[in-house]
Every structure is written in C-alpha cells, then in structure tokens.
Amino acid sequence: MTSIMLNEFISDEELLKARESFNSIKSPTETQRFEFALNLIRSKQRPVIEEGLDIFQRLFANTRDENMKRDTLYYMAIGQTKLNNYEQALKFLQSILNVQPANEQVRDLYIEVNRRMKKDGLIGLGIVGSAAAVGLVGIIGLGAALLAKK
C-alpha cells in the first residue's frame, strides 16, 4: 500500500474535478478538506502537492480528533516524500511511531522513506563524484598542455 500511494498520481482532469467540487462547498467539513488535500498530494506538480500539505497542516493544527491528527501526519509524510523532503517525512512518521510503535503501515513507510533517502543520497554522491572526476581530468589536461608548451 505504501509504495502504491507514493507512486499513485491523479490525472489533471480528475484534479480539476476534485478542485471544482471542493470549491463548490461553502463550508467544507474536516473530512472534505482531508479528501481534497489527499487528491492534491496525488499530483505530480510540486505546487499542487505543497497546497495539499498546507491544507493537511491546518487540519492537523485545528482538529481535536486524534485519528485525524495521525492520518494527516501520515499523508503529510507521503507528500513530503514525493517532494524528496525525506527528513521532514521521517519526523512526521516518528511522531506517529512514538504513540503507535506497532503501526505497520507507518513502519513500512518509514522504511521506504529511508530507502529512498539512501538511494537519492548515493545518486547525489555519484553526481558529485562524476563532477569531481571531470574536474580532475580537466586540471590534468590543463597541466599537461602547460607542460607541453614549455
């Protein structure tokens, strides 16, 4: 389920319908705001995901329902993971695990976020390493050219 949600995206048409439906509601309930935010974080577009995260943050701050708090933290972690904000995602998940250490869905997502963070970190190191190698080859080439001129 976790990897499915991380790889699940909403089409632009579905997103437009969800937005129109949500905007037609004069005073949306917590559940309606939650469902709309859930649609937003399913987008591929960073600003739309951020909009969903903002709604989730406001829901979290204003609700008294502990289940709603847990669920908003969980989906904020998914949104942050989609934005590659792994440390923030892990903080949200750890907050849930502090209260519910046996929550397998949260533990699975925590493991997946760590896996992605390590994978992206290794890719980042590979890019930096490649750039350093190219720079070193350039310096060696420049040195060889200068020596050849003498």
UniProtKB/TrEMBL annotation:
The keyword Membrane applies. Keywords: Membrane, TPR repeat, Transmembrane, Transmembrane helix. It comes from the Eukaryota. InterPro entries: Fis1, Fis1_cytosol, Fis1_TPR_C, TPR-like_helical_dom_sf, TPR_rpt. CDD domains: Fis1 (cd12212). GO terms for biological process: autophagy of mitochondrion; mitochondrial fission; mitochondrial fragmentation involved in apoptotic process; peroxisome fission. The chain crosses the membrane at residues 122-148. This is Mitochondrial fission 1.
